[in-house]
């Protein structure tokens, strides 16, 4: 107890210096808390955008469909799979979907497009295509033989609401499938690739047109919590209804997304490490000076019988007090700052267009979590401990007689 | 004299000076290297984008961009090329292409692609396809039935060199036209999306396919490497002037890929914010060290004042000391980071382990850090200017010591 008191008082012998050191530590931890929260928030935004626009968190498909999507690789009994998914705790909603490549023609243009058969009732619970409608309306099961098409595609086909779109493709059995559909709505997701090449129609129409016989290409599910995806995937795979089918999570469905998150995280970590090193050097000076300046004092203390190791302990306590206080303030301010921006969002300005290409909105929302709050400060704490250890370990080498002579 | 005094003062405590120099060194080093690394990454992205059939300058029908259809073509592209050729700097390359949307199909698979008609021998050094590694053979100039396919697309179609592929597109007269092509080669690109997006045939074959003997949809100009930045604006305006009589639009690469331009603007801002952040981290150390140096020497300052030194001179001396520290640290940091960056830039940094993420963002796998003299100056300026500003506080403290008070101490 006495040592603690001593250490505490020692810090305040040099108020200004101690406060500056604590500010350096506090600043670094504030920054780390905020930046990490920002990064994780943006990842969640990216994943959510990608998941809600196209892939869902989980998909059940026929084996091999993901690598080589072919018309004949189907999930034969989607009802059973959807029941199994709905039973699984943590699953928010699921929907069945078909897709294939067709030629779509308007009066004077023809383009190759990806056509999806969706069930509007369940689909709108899973994905947010319905909220992306810019003109007209979303699909409805009361209105068969209609399609919704991407805005860029509509432009290129020179087609508008209520006009007819001729569709020509290959049915499941290899025969030719052709029909004429009316454009009911035009959607814009902001992702050019999607808006340029996607058409959606009713699953029932798709089934009839392409002779799917009740089968689908994928059952898409979203879950309540991103972190539970792995667990839910494992549970679902155990289910008998899914025997012989493949279950893919969002990381497998869009590996590019996962890797770009990893890459961003790694480059972020490199930045943080650089920052921590710079901070470490800038506070090492204070710790070193605090020891050198007090050579005489240590000499006296040793002479009156304080064991060198106890002195080391006191010195380390001092630096840990400073670190701890600095980290505490940094974390509190960092958390406040993060919470503020978590509500207000951060506008990405000119980069918004670029990010729209990848389905990310122009506003980023940092997200505070235990990981983002503690991992940075803990790392700083560890580094400063070693920074402080270096000068402290010099103390046992001092000889009391010589040390007392020092100025 | 102040300079000399300040210089000697900082070496009165070599250990302290060495540590603070190390902190400044680390800061400057990391700033410059990080800047070079990320600039290398950005350059890679820009070059990839320009290589991706964009080119520095592009001439198209005014409506082609919003609606890339063969009806928005350039008729008699030769005469257009002849018109602008004298306006281009020496060493520029100029190519004509036909690019139309189409559908590729074989027995197994159908996919939407972009049919690109090129003059194969002219694409070298202009777009990625001219220099791409190819399995099989490159197209010959007069090959009317050959096609080049991206490796990823071939994989999806489960096909290989020598097999057939049917292309369908809309002709100039609005009719739909299909023709069979034989796969001559499979190309590899940096970005997989590219491999899936483009198939290449010869310009003549493309003209036949769209049913117009003398047309192109675009003319692309690649400027010589050393002139790409400086001559761009001027050349664009000269081309615009020369093409007045034609109903055509001229775009530089930034207009063609506005997202990239926005990214570069954000990139600069981000970098400078980062510089300031790193500075703040070491700024605390600088203030602390200078402050300690000042407090240790209270007696000295008191004495100096007692023998008639003005407070302003003391401020000058203390600032001189930190200026020396800052300059020495910056110089060492700059030199070492330049040397290190140069060393790394020779081999490049391989981001292979993030291959797909890298591809998604259109970057190169290999990153060659690029030193930008502006970044180096900015990093040094940030450290020295802000460093001096934060040193004002200890300097003013030193100037405020009163002789009597200080000389009583110790």
Task: Please tell me about this protein's structure.
The complex is a heterodimer of chains A (407) and B (410). In chain A, strand 2 (91-105) and strand 3 (110-118) form a beta hairpin. Chain A is 55% helix and 19% strand. In chain A, the strands form two sheets. Chain A has a six-stranded mixed β-barrel with strand order 2-3-8-5-7-6, surrounded by four helices. Chain A has two domains: 2-50 and 257-405, no CATH class; 64-243, no CATH class. The mean pLDDT of chain A is 87. With 407 residues, chain A is an alpha+beta fold. By secondary structure, chain B is of the alpha+beta class. Helices cover 54% and strands 18% of the residues of chain B. In chain B, strand 3 (93-105) and strand 4 form a beta hairpin. In chain B, helix 1 crosses helix 12 (311-347), helix 10 packs parallel to helix 14 (373-400) and helix 12 (311-347) runs antiparallel to helix 14. At the A-B interface, helix 2, strand 2, strand 3, helix 10 and helix 13 of A face helix 2, strand 3, strand 4, helix 10 and helix 13 of B.
**Major protein interface:** A-B, 65 and 61 residues
Radius of gyration of chain B: 31 Å
Sequence stretches where pLDDT stays below 50 over 5 or more residues of chain B = none
How would you sum up the global shape of chain B? elongated
CA gyration radius of chain A, whole angstroms: 31 Å
**Can you count the beta strands of chain B?**
14
Membrane topology (chain B): Multi-pass membrane protein
Main location (chain B): membrane
Protein name (chain B): ABC-type transport system, involved in lipoprotein release, permease component
Subcellular location (chain B): Cell membrane
